[in-house]
Amino acid sequence: MTVTGRKQITVSPGMRHARIHGLGGYRPERVVTNEEICQFIDSSDEWIQQRSGIVSRRRAAEDETVIDMAEAASRQALERAGISADQIGVVIMATVSHPFQTPAAAPGLAHRLGIPNPAAFDISAACAGYCHGISLANDMVRAGTADYVLVIGVEKLSDFTDKHDRGSAFIFGDGAGAAVVGVSDYPGIGPTLWGSMGEQAEAITQRESWTELRPQMEDTGRTDPIAWPSFVMQGQTVFRWAVFSMAPVAVQTVEAAGLTPDDLDAFVPHQANMRITDAMIKALKLPQHVPVARDIAETGNTSAASIPLAMSRMLDEGEAPHGGIALQIGFGAGLVYASQVVIMP
């Protein structure tokens, strides 16, 4: 068939449905308590818990990479989904802590998993990265670009944490979460609401660029490895933004899926701060019967990894039902955000 004398491009006949078939998570072995954090900052376990809700966090070993952690989470997700590596057509890695600008982490992960010739790329959307990845995967599956997409959120934030910075040293942790998104006979991922506010870039940012660090090292004549730049955050600015701007996005996301908060079986916000979570629950007027992820207490803020880690824990511990409806929302540096309703695997 031709259009205006030209051959017509062949496209997939109609849109398919997509859902999350399996989730996996990985937390490094080392547990770092608030008491250990307070060896380097003027604070206390009581203050940190009141300020953030964090009791402890996990830290990767020095030689443990984001690809190592992503591999562990991905293997669990594939096993739980009942999907083999050769069925994966795309690998999407959400991370801001892979130490190479190029090559990306995703191709290396795909090679380790034995995925034959997939599209593989990293995305940088900080704490909203996983939800961005789920949206991309959903679109790919629905359009017929791929039958199965592996989405990973992974961070080794300990490399970027200034242990002497009282405002951020206690917040971040390391870990990985992964999801297999694939073809479904029913809709399992709702519309994504996402956006950015670049005018507030300074609210959460890397203190120096890599190019700014190199001259500093050369000036001192040091020959040891270049230092990692650390993250800095304007706590009150981020708190106000998360509570007053993200709660309406969460409400709109539920509405876009044709649901109400009463229909939810779980609420899985980015594990940024327990006070932010509590404020969002209030703003959402979330019914008391809806369980809320509070993985931050023992895992800290793991940025792109926090939502899949928290959801997989809720399912593993029976706090949320398999096949239930969950609202997930990620928000962070950029400032960026993304939110969608999903059917839990």
List the helices and strands and how they pair.
Layout lengths: L1 E2 L2 E2 L9 E10 L3 E4 H4 L7 H8 L3 E4 L6 H16 L8 E5 L10 H9 L5 E5 L5 H15 L4 E9 L17 E11 L8 E4 L7 E3 L3 H11 L10 E3 L1 H22 L9 E4 L4 H11 L11 H4 L6 H11 L8 E8 L3 E8 L2
Parallel strand pairs: 6-7, 6-8, 13-14
Antiparallel strand pairs: 1-2, 3-9, 4-5, 8-9, 10-15, 11-12, 14-15
Task: Give your account of this protein's structure.
The chain has 345 residues and is an alpha+beta fold. It is 32% helix and 24% strand. The strands form five sheets. Strands 3-9-8-6-7 form a five-stranded mixed β-sheet, sandwiched between helices. A four-stranded mixed β-sheet has the order 10-15-14-13, sandwiched between helices. Strand 6, helix 4 and strand 7 form a beta-alpha-beta unit. Helix 3 packs across helix 4. It starts with a strand and ends with a strand.
